[in-house]
Amino acid sequence: MTFKDILKITMNLVVLYLAGGLLLAAVYAKTSPIIFKKNEQEKKEALQKMMPEADVIEKLGDWYPHEKHAEYFVAKKCGELKIKKVKNEETGKMKEEKECINPRTIGYIVQTFGKGYSSYINILFSVDNNFRVQKIDILHHAETPGLGDEIVLDYFKNRFKGKDIEHLKVVKTETTKYIQAITGATISSRAVAEDGIRNGLEFLEKALKGEVKHEPSASREG
How far is it, in rounded angstroms, from Cα 217 to Cα 222? Predict the structure, then answer.
């Protein structure tokens, strides 16, 4: 093979890689806004599920359990909720906007992470104004199938209803006062109840009192 042949092959590969890169960039530019909107809609639905009686759910800030980015929110009920139609500047179509009159806070929603047996567990939970747990949801985990993965089942999640910070403690014996551990999965149970939700609730109470302040950092995991 001559130097001319090698140069020709090299140039063909460069052109191929450039074309592939441009194609990927074009696909990303086309799909990223769609993916972003889909993710935002899914987040909105997940938050509403945590506090279905809320008319408005507003982000209060960010925090970083286990150096992972998480958010916390306030849920409000409107004294009066007005729906008005406005024109969407991007699409030109009419869309509905809510106007919340005389809102009152009915609770809070916190995203948190707990260190489980084989994964960091991404958790969402809501509390009322007395800081008692109303609902929890497991957004993501990789716990052991047939054991730790039972954290997603209703029988376990329902054990958190009405619990305050003093009763978010996992025990292995049968109980309704505290959180009964999943059989054979105490680590996963504690990751959700203690490392995740109890720590998240402690953070929320301090944040609302102005005792903590967390700034985003580029070195932290998103």
Answer: 10
